[in-house]
Amino acid sequence: MEKNPFIIRVYALIINQQNEILLSDEFQMGMRMTKFPGGGLQYGEGTIECLHREALEEFGQDIEITGHFYTTDFFQEAFFYPHHQLISIYYLARFPEPPRFRISTIPFDFAEEKEGNQSFRWIRIENLDPAMITLPVDKKAAELLRQKYR
User: Is the pTM value of this prediction over 0.90?
Assistant: First the structure.
């Protein structure tokens, strides 16, 4: 058995004043996926530090973390890494200043399916359907978010 079969991912549930949540449409690992912004925890960083790094990488600007929302509470094998257990941590967040990056109104708003391409869009929380989200734990977080904001 591998020494560390765990993968930790950290995500930001960024909600604006119109009760919309920011989704990330990406082409990663050879497939289209819709998920929440965030990414993998690197060795030596804490979860909040990870989110700030990811925000700067993905948006080119920082976010404000407003609280913990959810941590995986069931076994989930990592989607892309067999025999690895995924632990996902979700934080509520907001932009302390208006977004300075492009936000689209349509999913997958990029010219070609090239590895790493990404676009962002807002969706009203009441219209957030877990079926539109790709990854299993993100689907659970989407459902919990809808329940909270009903």
Answer: yes
